[in-house]
User: Fold this.
Amino acid sequence: MTIAFVLVSWRPDVPAGMERAVIAHAAGLQDIQAGAVIVTADPAAPSIYHNVPIERLRSLDVRFPCDDATLRAAIDASAATIGEELGRLFRQRQVHSVVYVDALWGLGRIMPTYPGIRNVLAAHVVGHDADLQAALSRNPDAVIAPSATVLNEAAARGYDSSGWSVVPNTLLTLPGPQSPDDRYQLWATGPIRVLARLGPEKGIAELLDSITGFDRPIEVALSDAPFEVAAGSQEQVHLRCRALAAETPGVALRHGLAWHEVSTWLGGASVVIVPSHAETFGLVALEAMAAGTPVVAYDVGNLPSLIGDGGVVVPYQPRPENLWRAAQHLLADPVGYAAASRAAYYRSRDYWPALVANQLLKVVS
Assistant:
């Protein structure tokens, strides 16, 4: 049995939840002896990654980074040839089920049908009505989402999500064990770290603009993605963040991380702050928690359910100074910090690859 994941922007090290979730799902399926293949339109993608084969979709003519409107027009203009190419790929790979990862970026809006192949729409976000309505009109065999947050948001927008299934995101790599002494040292002197892509909804610029005094380093890793809200929007956020970091002593701004570096980097933090204004899952939070690093975040989307007692969740107003204050309070309480670190790790075990791969397999088979 082979499951195909279609996501036109997929390539290694893209700083985005959908791309990381796709390879983690695919690798998890391989680990439980179920086949997987990823289909992407990004020419920078390799032919194999983490032992998962990657197929290039050549009939979609777009350049990255790409905005939603440009991609939508390109998909609609080439829908027939895209369908023919996908059909050939699926026959060659003996695909049993296809997960169209997003109504737009995963080609769900055109979702071709082929005899004997199940179609699954993955709704990581509700997205534009123009795309989701088109995808649902194709009558997929199943709709999956990474959290109940997406189901609730869809219902609030007027969609019947009662039959959708929750299949959470999972981890690409599991961090090695961390000793209590190492974690104690990180509590005492470790840096506060932030990892995000350059989207305005990630709240990075506002966070940097409200830093209060810390006697430890603050390290921020930022990357651009092959998609953006509007042309040039990522560069605008980057320029503002660079200016704010340059004005603030103790703050180091660095380019984002390769996927294999994320777990170790987040595990080497005293606290990880996730300043997002919206999160339908929260992969950065999960990756930090799996390494025993407590997370501080707003109470938006899936983050309260995910983090629980594995960190501190503050009310969303948004007031980024409250995130800094919560981190300070956590670091001032060694007993509470140790409890949060333990809780973070044990909560993350619910999202380990083999467990999630079996959940996914039940839905798509």
User: Anything to note?
Assistant: The chain has two domains: 2-167, 180-350. The longest helix spans residues 17-31. The radius of gyration is 20 Å.
